Write the structure tokens for this entry.
Amino acid sequence: MAVASNKTILTCALTGSVTPPKQHPGLPITPQQIAESGLDAAKAGAAAIHIHVRDPETGAPSMKPEYYKEVVDRVRDAGSDVIINLTCGHGARFEPSDVDANEAHGTPAMQTVEVRMRHVRENKPDICTLDYGSMNFGPFVIINTPEHLQRMAEIAKEVGAKPEIEVFDTGHVRLANKMVKDGVIDEPPLYQLCLGIPWGIDQTSESMMFMRDLLPDGAHWASFGIGAGEFPMLAQAALLGGHVRVGMEDNLYIEKGVPAPSNAALVERGVDILRTLGKEPATPAEAREIIGLDPR
């Protein structure tokens, strides 16, 4: 039976890698906290959870595969059918050293494709995110070369993970469209229009529509905003026929001046907005059917 046209996939981005833990005492940090937050988000209506991991002691971003394995195992062992979406954005950050501009510093620094994708090989998630472009990202630079992106997409295909093409500006869409056309990424592709991130495209209705109109025919797409733009951009994406995202990676407040109690609370608010607009959150099974993932 076909999924109803008003079904919208809601993804919860649980912790990200940018927000300092001191900004919110409820930000999930340890693998156990991240897994439990994801399970709670799924119960609240999220069809998918987008996962970064952090150092359990410091809260700093981490690439350690054992942390990813613990999160994924905890979610799967709980019997949840929520869609698991692992980031592959780490390992692309560059900040030139004051001593030698050719030397990267910061955490994490530039890494090889194999290092960036090892947690995908080991955990075989439903989805993995590929950042389709290079850009100034806050105070540092994110570097994703076309060759690296092609190899990352090939590894995702090998393990059966669908790439979620994260695009932060229009040139990123053009590069991704070329790789879809060349068969590097299977059709129909899945795009995530990331709005409001410094220094990518603005989080406005006009920007979202412009990016959407650049996508190839038949593409699935979602979009999100950050901070105060999270819920307005969720509403705009839903009205335009896209899928949506919330979560503490993108926003720490349930309303102006009121910290969000949890990721689940942000999901509940997102579900309320969808239903106000005549939409219904897709279940994980419905989401799998919509974007062509293998059933669980």
User: Anything to note?
Assistant: The first strand starts at residue 7 and ends at 8. The longest helix spans residues 31-44.
